[in-house]
Design goal:
The complex is a heterotrimer of chains A (about 525), B (about 950) and C (about 110).
Chain A lengths: L6 H15 L5 H25 L6 E4 L10 E4 L1 H21 L10 H17 L3 H20 L4 H32 L4 H10 L2 H22 L8 H7 L2 H30 L5 H23 L3 H22 L2 H30 L17 H16 L5 H12 L6 H34 L13 H19 L1 H16 L1 H11 L12
Antiparallel strand pairs in A: 1-2
Helix pairs in contact in A: 1-2, 1-4, 2-3, 2-4, 3-4, 3-10, 3-17, 4-5, 5-6, 5-10, 6-8, 6-9, 7-10, 7-19, 8-10, 9-10, 9-12, 10-12, 10-13, 10-19, 11-12, 11-16, 12-13, 12-16, 13-14, 13-15, 13-17, 13-18, 14-16, 14-17, 15-17
Chain B lengths: L1 H18 L5 H27 L4 E8 L4 E7 L1 H24 L4 H23 L3 H19 L6 H32 L4 H6 L1 H6 L3 H15 L8 H4 L5 H10 L1 H11 L1 H4 L3 H23 L4 H21 L3 H32 L15 H15 L5 H14 L6 H29 L17 H19 L1 H4 L1 H12 L16 H18 L1 H10 L5 H23 L4 H20 L16 H19 L4 H21 L3 H22 L12 H26 L7 H12 L4 H9 L1 H23 L22 H24 L7 H27 L5 H20 L9 E6 L3 E6 H28 L10
Antiparallel strand pairs in B: 1-2, 3-4
Helix pairs in contact in B: 1-2, 1-4, 2-3, 2-4, 3-4, 3-11, 3-16, 3-20, 3-22, 4-5, 5-6, 6-9, 9-12, 11-16, 12-15, 14-15, 14-19, 15-16, 15-19, 16-17, 16-18, 16-20, 16-22, 17-19, 17-20, 18-19, 18-20, 18-23, 19-23, 26-30, 27-28, 28-29, 29-35, 29-37, 31-32, 32-33, 33-36, 33-37, 34-35, 35-37, ...
Chain C lengths: L1 H19 L4 H21 L20 H31 L17
Helix pairs in contact in C: 1-2, 2-3
Classes of the chains: A mainly alpha (about 525), B mainly alpha (about 950), C mainly alpha (about 110).
Chain lengths: ~525, ~950, ~110
């Protein structure tokens, strides 16, 4: 049997433990360990992806206890997508942080590795309570990372972020308990089957549990009205951390997809789950708030934070259509938006470093040292984010437009109209906001001479690489598009997932046949 | 292949010119010119085939999933535009070379952007795939943004650029939507198929929407009323840009779109009325305002607008002849407007001004330029023998046969005549005003600098071609134009003759009318200017900026109102959502009670629960007295412990107890730095709201708990009970679950604890508590940090406690206990030493670096788990065996215990790390040396 | 007994949430502790209530459901870790925000340049 599925968790966890054990090791070594771990994780993720062709579900029964009794890791297309994306993003962020940000606080790299372990764990586990545990791991790590470096802004944002998420965790436990109480199991596949068998009288309670989960994951995913912790947290975080946090909202979205497509969607189908009925209006509202926020931002980080919200709204709106094409396009957009918002956070930092007191606020200052280079990078990244051709933003927007065309039915028509309207509006507003920001930052300049240093080549290189990624994501989009389509297909056919788990389980899932 | 080269060569040129820095301007311009020259020859080489009516297609895959293909098409229409674009581009490059003389950097930047733009335009006109066309469409918007903002240091330039981008970019988005809709109706994005399915689209329910979106795209690009406003402000661009973008190419893109989609969208009333109305409005506004612009480029900009309106009007009429005339005039307009712009640039360079109130009587200084300008202006005015005259006359002819009925039928030619009149007036003005009209005013440079011979070359060529086309159109443009119209419309073309001058017919009279009227109007210009100046001044750019600013401010206010940084609001929102959403689901509950019999109530439990409830409520009531509240919370924890014990969960009871002790200690420590009382802040209303929220949430939770507890249970737990001993080697099932069945959770949870400890370390590392945070009361809970009694009690306690925890750890697998509880007890004992003795005392006697403990503990747990990999078993697979050792008797060894040991070490390390760093803060001399 | 348990859970949750909605850090911390008591009891009671039958194998057939107990134990420890962290965080915030108000002395200071 292959141990590949457990490695994305163990690698970073081991590195983190080692870094804590030898806390005095010089920073250089810590950086090396950190980067190596990320690189290896990426390799593992790719290997897992390569294996999906012959068996679409990697199963790993921890402690050799078969489902539904032990904890089972299940790696499918969606997991691989998220693992790979996380590894790539983490690679960029770590590299960027290695140029100084990791000096701001203690144990940056250890915490980063813990964070990755938590994220990867959440992506591969097939057990609901284990998902909770990994959520806690990634959350506590994120609290610590967010607060790296200290300062009033971080203190405030951190406190809010922590308190809200602790409340969220409490709600998570309630939902878990409720589901265990009703189904008597924790393995997601088993739970899905048992929910299918549940008597009519219990439906309402199970739906209530699903709604609680919607609230929990909605808070992580920054869904209106649960998104207000996000802007200040992302603004306050140090650049590489903020960039890494681009994946944090996506964890919430991943959990939503996983749990509702599998656990609650096995019988009725994702689109028919009660939560999905709510998702549509909430997502559109989120998108709208994001648009307003982008327009009203007074500095680059703020604008980017709201772009994250826009991306969440767009993503969930597309997902809530729950058709194969819509989900595929949304997943493609997920990859694009994660990388690009992250890149923009880093760019905001590069810009801020060259503008003295003004930092990245949209005010006029002396010319930057790397005005031309940064200007070009900004221009291209802005194109990608605003969805202008020929970059990945355009491809994903185009795909979502095509995919959301359910115009046949009346409701489908109005849905399409709403979604198109907001999608295009968001693009329009981004053009306005970004052109304004760009011309303020790069075109206008006060006479006094610049008093700043050149940009650090590695940092610059990281941002360039990320933007190049966006170019590749459009020029060579086809393979990824095929992959997201496969992902959507497997997501929307949870019975395959269940069958795979069943093949390993001792005893039929859903308990003995005679069970009610 | 040739097609691809035609489009890509300029792009290649753009990169070369941009990259080969520090090249001498001449080389750079030559380099820039090579690409287009080759493209031009290639395009011309295709001419015969095209004129034979062939249609060349080239196709490469890009994203089949989206039907987004890299496919090109060359037919008459494409070729007409392509030739126009390339040829004009070359002339502009030549012009720009002299225009930017002495500014090598600018020249280089212009060349590369210019070529980039040329690529985009060529892409638009040669795309076979609608989506691919969009790529270039947006590309033109972006590049024009950079070109208009060429002199970024000028405020006007920046604003003009932004305005253009927003308007044209917005139009592009609309076009995107339109194209996707078309693609969905037709089922393909290939132009050939789309053009073939005109009826399908026209009859489709979405037709109005599609038309609106496509028109929005075209109108914004071609500066049609009311989107024309960006064009005048784009004049802040350097003149070569204006020549190329704003007379020859970009503004024609919209027209091209209308012509291209004519077979699909036109020939409906909707098209007729919307397009021709817009065209007419643009024609008149442009012509009217142009007359009154004192800035040469301003005048030309508005005249361009009006000419674009004229062409739109022609296309709008939807007749086949109308389209032919429209294309013809588009061609002519490029020929006479470009040189006029060039002239404006030359005059600007020569005199340092573009204000026609100052620039007069230049004929003395630049007679040659005067002649050229005269030709072009005459053509613009529509004087006979010049190309402008032909298309203008045909336009009049068309206006007489408009498909309108009733009043509109007569209104059209009338308004057309008025527009003609106006255009004559401003044409006369631009000629007479600049070169005659008395002596120059106070010009920056006087006498004007002599324009270089080279810069006059492109002007000459264009002016000459105006004449040639005017005289013998049938030999020059006729065939290509015919083919273009043919390919645009498909089907047979009406009989017509470009050149034929039959005098004394209605159109001719209209021309004469326009000419004489225009002259008269120019005569009366002084009075007209005076009148116009009385009209209220409106600066579109200012309004636009103001609007943008307002939108930004408004958004900012809204954001601040929503995201106002109040945790209380966010938390309330979270709870409200957590109440409402599940609440809606719970509406469907038929019966809360599940029918299972309840376990009988016994007084002891009742009492305990009541105390629990009471102390919880009391804690809320007195929460302003913080110490009091803390103690009450502690008692809550105690009674929760008892409930666990009562309901047969000894492990939980033990854990809860030790955790509670820890937690209370930590909060006590914290409280000693915080105010002792909480001020009364929230108003009664707020408190009521909070109570309502919390109450409904709590009620809901209680109801859920009740509903589940009274329902029959089916669970997988029987498996654990059955296999605990045989499979896990322990009789304490809870512990076996923790270290074996679900050991992975435990690993995760100890990781959480470890991270928390490290995080606390990081938080407190450089934390300066300036003394203690001043409390409102000022009194502190412990005036003496290390009370005597505590010290007396603590020291003997330590060994006992350690022994107890060792015992609890060892028996954990079979009896209540285990690593966590043991670990917590140990750290409670050790921390007592801290409390009692204080740091300094403790440091002398105990290990003080705890981080390695945390790390080692985690590693031990991980290593245990990894051990099983060596035996080919999955991570965390346990192994155990029973041994009989002489003297010691039966002894069980299980890898699970090793794992549990790791957990134990982690817990001890983590808790002590936390406590030590909190305790460190008590030493008032600040952080001092790192602990842990 | 079930009813009693449900009521205590409800009360604990209510009090916890109410305290979380207060304006100062310390009550909020207390609230989080109460809330975690509440939800832990909830999770525990999902294994139904059993008297005098701990899940320690002793030959007798009747045992309490061990799984929720294990889960609650995990939850308790995680909760403890979080409490410890948020306590220290509240201290740090109190220093850096110059007040122990959850939004600090001036909620909008970091908006300004």
């Amino acid at each position: 049997m292959s141990h590949l599925p457990i490695l994305p968790i163990l690698l970073p966890l081991l590195c983190a433990a080692l870094l804590i054990l030898c806390y005095a090791t010089p920073l250089a070594v810590q950086r090396l360990v950190s980067l190596a771990s990320v690189a290896l994780t990426l390799v593992v993720a790719l290997a897992l992806g390569a294996g999906l062709d012959e068996h679409p579900y990697w199963l790993y029964a921890l402690g050799d206890w078969m489902p539904p009794f032990g904890i089972l890791l299940v790696v499918d297309h969606l997991s691989v997508l998220m693992l790979t994306l996380t590894a790539v993003l983490a690679g960029f962020c770590t590299l960027y942080a290695c140029r100084g940000h990791d000096r701001q606080g203690a144990h940056f790299h250890a915490l980063l590795q813990f964070q990755l372990a938590g994220l990867n764990g959440a992506f591969v586990t097939g057990d609901l309570f284990n998902l909770f545990v990994f959520f806690e791991v990634l959350l506590i790590a994120s609290y610590a990372l967010l607060l790296q470096g200290g300062g009033a802004a971080r203190g405030r944002a951190g406190l809010h972020y922590v308190v809200l998420n602790l409340t969220g965790s409490a709600i998570f436990i309630l939902a878990l308990g409720l589901l265990y109480g009703m189904t008597g199991t924790l393995n997601m596949a088993d739970m899905a089957v048992r929910i299918g068998q549940a008597p009519e009288a219990d439906r309402a309670l199970i739906n209530a549990a699903s709604m609680l989960l919607l609230v929990v994951f909605g808070t992580k995913a920054a869904l209106l009205p649960l998104l207000f912790w996000l802007p200040r947290a992302y603004i306050a975080a140090s650049a590489p951390v903020a960039a890494l946090f681009a994946i944090m909202t996506k964890v919430g979205i991943y959990a939503l997809l996983r749990v509702f497509a599998l656990v609650f969607g096995l019988q009725v189908g994702l689109g028919e789950t009660q939560a999905w009925q709510w998702l549509w209006p909430m997502a559109l509202a989120t998108l709208a708030v994001g648009i307003v926020g982008v327009l009203g931002a007074s500095h680059l980080r703020g604008m980017t934070a709201y772009m994250v919200i826009v991306s969440v709204g767009t993503l969930l709106a597309a997902l809530s259509l729950a058709t194969h094409q819509a989900v595929s396009s949304a997943l493609f957009y997920l990859v694009h938006s994660t990388l690009m918002t992250a890149a923009f956070f880093l760019m905001a930092d590069l810009v801020a470093r060259q503008r003295g007191e003004a930092r990245d606020h949209l005010v006029v200052t002396a010319a930057m040292k790397n005005r031309l280079t940064l200007g070009i990078l900004f221009f291209v990244a802005a194109m990608a984010l605003a969805g202008l051709p020929p970059l990945s933003g355009f491809v994903s927007k185009l795909w979502m437009l095509q995919a959301s065309a359910g115009g046949a039915t009346e409701s489908g028509g109005s849905q399409q109209g709403l979604f198109w309207g907001l999608l295009l509006l968001s693009g329009f507003v981004m053009i306005i906001a970004l052109s304004r920001a760009g011309s303020k930052l790069f075109w206008r300049q006060s006479p006094e001479r610049a008093h700043n240093r050149r940009a650090d080549p590695v940092r610059l290189g990281v941002v360039m690489a990320m933007i190049l990624a966006s170019v590749l994501l459009s020029v060579m989009a086809s393979p990824l598009m095929d992959f997201t389509q496969a992902t959507a297909r497997s997501l929307l056919s949870p019975q395959d997932y269940v069958a795979a788990v069943q093949s390993l389980a001792d005893g039929p899932l859903g308990g003995p046949p005679d069970a009610p | 292949m040739a097609l691809l080269l035609i489009v890509l060569l300029p792009l290649l040129g753009a990169f070369l010119t941009a990259t080969c820095v520090r090249s001498r301007p001449r080389c750079n311009s030559l380099l820039a010119a090579t690409g287009p020259v080759i493209s031009l020859t290639l395009a011309l080489s295709l001419l015969p085939a095209i004129l034979r009516g062939e249609r060349l297609l080239a196709h490469w895959h890009w994203l089949p999933q989206l039907d987004l293909a890299l496919s090109l098409r060359m037919d008459g229409l494409s070729l007409l535009f392509a030739l126009l674009i390339i040829a004009m581009g070359l002339l502009v490059l030549l012009y720009a070379h002299f225009y930017f003389a002495g500014k090598p950097r600018d020249s280089q930047r212009f060349n590369s952007l210019m070529l980039l733009f040329m690529t985009a335009m060529l892409g638009i006109v040669t795309s076979e795939n609608l989506l691919f066309m969009l790529v270039f469409w947006e590309m033109t918007s972006l590049v024009s943004f950079l070109l208009i903002g060429f002199h970024a240091d000028r405020r006007e330039a920046r604003r003009g650029a932004r305005m253009t981008l927003v308007i044209t970019g917005g139009g592009g988005l609309a076009l995107l939507a339109g194209m996707v809709l078309i693609g969905q109706v037709v089922g393909s994005y290939q132009l050939t198929e789309v053009l073939a399915s005109g009826d399908l689209i026209r009859q489709h329910a979405h037709y109005p929407l599609i038309l609106a979106l496509v028109l929005l795209g075209a109108m914004t690009k071609s500066a049609q009323f009311p989107f024309h406003l960006w064009l005048p402000h784009a004049m802040t661009a350097p003149t070569p840009v204006s020549v190329y973008l704003h007379s020859a190419t970009m503004v024609k893109a919209g027209i091209f779109l209308l012509a291209r989609f004519h077979p699909v969208l036109a020939e409906t009333d909707l098209w007729l009325y919307s397009v021709s109305t817009v065209g007419m409005a643009t024609l008149l506004t442009g012509a009217f305002v142009a007359m009154f612009k004192h800035d040469i480029k301003g005048l030309l900009a508005y005249s361009t607008i009006s000419h674009l309106g004229l062409i739109t009007l022609l296309l709008g009429m939807g007749t086949r002849m109308g389209l032919i005339v429209g294309l013809f005039h588009l061609f002519n307009h490029a020929l006479f407007k470009a040189p006029l712009f060039m002239m404006a640039g030359i005059v600007d360079k020569a005199t340092g001004s573009r204000d026609m109130r100052l620039i007069n009587g230049l004929w003395r200084h630049m007679p040659y330029l005067m002649v050229l300008t005269g030709l072009c202006a005459a053509s613009m005015a529509g004087l006979p023998l010049l190309n402008g005259f032909l298309s203008k006359k045909m336009f009049f002819a068309e206006s007489l046969q408009s498909p309108f009925t009733g009043i509109l039928f007569w209104l059209t030619p009338a308004l057309a005549a008025v527009a003609g009149l106006l255009s004559v007036a401003y044409s006369v003005r631009i000629f007479h005003n600049i070169f005659f009209n008395g002596l120059p005013g106070a010009l920056p440079h006087y006498p004007p600098r002599k324009p270089s011979a080279g810069i006059l070359v492109p002007v000459t060529l264009l002016a000459a071609s105006c004449l040639v086309v005017g005289l013998v159109p049938q030999y020059v443009v006729h065939t290509l134009l015919q083919q273009a119209a043919q390919d645009a419309l498909g089907g047979a073309l009406p009989e017509y003759n470009l050149g034929l001058l039959h005098l004394f017919n209605m159109p001719f009279l209209m021309s004469v009318l326009a000419l004489s009227g225009g002259l008269a109007m120019y005569m009366a210009r002084r009075q007209l200017f005076a009148l116009y100046d009385r009209l209220p001044e409106v600066d579109a750019k200012e309004n636009f900026e103001w609007l943008m600013l307002r939108a930004g401010r408004f958004a900012e206010r809204q954001v601040h109102r929503l995201e106002n940084g109040s945790l209380q609001r966010y938390a309330a929102l979270l709870m409200a959502t957590a109440v409402v959403l599940p609440g809606t689901a719970l509406l469907g509950v038929q019966a809360w009670g599940g029918g299972e019999a309840m376990t009988p109530l016994d007084p002891v439990t009742l009492l305990g629960a009541l105390i629990l409830i009471a102390s919880a409520i009391a804690a809320v009531v007195v929460h302003r007295q913080r110490l009091m509240a803390l103690l009450l919370i502690g008692s809550c924890g105690l009674f929760v412990t008892l409930l666990f014990a009562r309901f047969s969960a000894p492990d939980l009871a033990l854990t809860q107890l030790s955790v509670e002790v820890m937690a209370v200690i930590i909060m006590m420590l914290a409280l000693s730095f915080l105010p002792q009382t909480t001020p009364r802040e929230s108003p009664p209303l707020r408190r009521g709201r909070d109570l309502l929220l919390a109450g409904s949430a709590g009620g809901g939770v209680a109801a859920l708990a009740y509903a589940v507890m009274t329902r029959p249970q089916q669970t997988i737990s029987d498996f654990f009970l059955a296999n605990s001993l045989t499979g896990g080697g322990g009789s304490n099932v809870v512990n076996v679950i923790l270290v074996d069945f679900r050991g992975f959770d435990t690993l995760g949870e100890s990781t959480v604890l470890g991270i928390a400890a490290v995080a606390v370390f990081a938080l407190t590392r450089n934390l300066q508590l300036k003394g203690r945070v001043a409390g409102d009361s000022g009194s502190y809970w412990a005036s003496e940090p290390h009370p005597m009694i505590l010290r007396m009690m603590a020291r003997p306690l330590l060994p006992v406690a350690l022994m107890v925890s060792a015992y609890i750890f060892l028996r954990g697998h079979n009896m209540p206990g285990g690593g966590f509880i043991a670990g917590l007890i140990t750290s409670v004992a050790l921390s007592l030493q801290y409390m009692a003795g204080g740091l300094a005392w403790a440091h002398q006697r105990m290990i003080t670096s705890f981080r390695p403990l945390v790390g080692a503990g985690l590693l031990l747990a991980l290593a245990t788990g990894l051990g099983s990999l060596a035996f080919g078993a999955p991570f965390l697979t346990s192994w155990f065996g029973h041994y009989h050792l002489p003297g010691l008797g039966e002894l069980e060894l299980a890898t699970a215990m090793l794992f549990d040991l790791g957990v134990f070490v982690t817990v001890v390390g983590a808790t002590l790390l936390i406590l030590a760093n909190l305790g460190k803060l008590m030493t008032l001399d600040g952080p001092g040396k790192e602990i842990g | 007994m079930e009813l009693l348990m449900a009521i205590s859970i409800g009360v604990l949750t209510t009090c916890g949430l109410y305290l979380i909605l207060r304006a100062r850090t310390f009550p909020v911390v207390l609230g989080l502790t109460l809330l975690s008591h509440g939800v832990n009891l909830f999770l525990f009671s999902m294994g139904r209530l059993t008297l005098e039958a701990p899940a320690v194998l002793d030959g007798s057939g009747n045992h309490a459901d061990p799984l929720p107990q294990a889960l609650v134990l995990t939850a308790i420890v995680i909760g403890f870790a979080m409490t410890a962290f948020v306590v220290v965080l509240s201290l740090r915030a109190a220093v850096e925000l110059r007040s122990d108000h959850v939004d600090g002395a001036d909620p909008d200071e970091d908006r300004r340049l």
